[in-house]
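Reproducibility note. Readers wishing to regenerate the assembly model reported in the main text can use the exact inputs given here. Chain order matters: entities are listed in the order in which they were concatenated for prediction.
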Amino acid sequence: SAVISQKPSRDICQRGTSLTIQCQVDSQVTMMFWYRQQPGQSLTLIATANQGSEATYESGFVIDKFPISRPNLTFSTLTVSNMSPEDSSIYLCSVVLGSTEAFFGQGTRLTVV
Amino acid sequence: QQQVKQSPQSLIVQKGGISIINCAYENTAFDYFPWYQQFPGKGPALLIAIRPDVSEKKEGRFTISFNKSAKQFSLHIMDSQPGDSATYFCAASKDYKLSFGAGTTVTVRA
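Running the prediction on these inputs yields the following structure tokens for the assembly.
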């Protein structure tokens, strides 16, 4: 497995502001993803963080709202922009190791007030 | 539209009993089916996984049964323990991207 560190672990933010979440992995990984888990719900894929190129977003998610950076094979950031209370969720970084196994960070619990 | 359907939403089992969670999918392009265990305040932890060319996989007290023709798979937790009380998610992978079921909250009564 891999050690996946996310910062911050939780935050309370004012509506209209932005928050950048960091994901650091202890080894180089090719595949890195960002997921969202709304309160009491399942996980939904936001985007694939591509190293050296623009992220690939899933239906319903756009770059202006969730800009993602991936400067190298061990680090990525997700920004939640112009936040509203509906953005209150757990945001999770995930990496794929080997051929298929996906591992998750502990998540960033975001509350927008 | 949820690509993976999971049931039941919750279940209660006595210590030592068997917990069974079922999932179904439609997209035959899925090629990997993991199960995750999540405790409150924690990220999901990979529990066990299976590929569609295998009908069953067992790791300790956890067993996945896979029925490719029915497009269904299930998780059996044998000899359930209070420490197994958690939310369990099935998932299906295509191109390394995971689609998750809605989750099952398992409560094991001592």
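We highlight two features of this model. The mean pLDDT of chain B is 96. The first strand of chain B starts at residue 4 and ends at 7.
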